């Protein structure tokens, strides 16, 4: 456990300058775009997703740029601690950025309602403000972790430079396959959409769906970490 904490601290120290710059950027852009779009969804989606992907990729990029990944092999950290430490660091970054996004969204809503921007008055459109915030946040965090679970094993196995070539093909292949399967003329016909409607009713709406996707995302993230740890242990530098 101490090795994992050391790995988290190492990644955090190397990323602190970038985090400060991005935080100020999101304060200016997040609130501004939320007000221009007359809704709080932008910050809730863009900030956790972009932070998760950028922290994951930049931490690997810093390893390779300075050959830190080779020097780290001479430290007391074993390879499994390196993997789980990085996964924990990205998880912490996503969680903190999600909390930051909620603050920006609520500030935007308060400013918009004070200025009389009706679009930000979600209760006036028959929606609870907290339902929208919660659903958007859970959907985004769950989706980010699920995508990261595919990226992490590739990056630990082959390095981020090589894996970046495979990632677009992987995601494009998954999206294409899913789109084909669930299309009206696909092999599954309308069954997926009908099942989705029943699932939404069972979960009580989009907020329940967000909770479900968050749980699936966390499970895939942990599974991706286990796969990455096994692949990284066998990697030859």
Automatic annotation (TrEMBL):
Keywords: Membrane, Transmembrane, Transmembrane helix. The keyword Cell division does not apply. It comes from Kribbibacterium absianum. The chain crosses the membrane at residues 17-35, 41-61, 82-112, 132-152, 164-182, 202-229. The keyword Transferase does not apply. It comes from the Bacteria. InterPro entries: ABC2_memb-like. This is ABC-2 transporter permease.
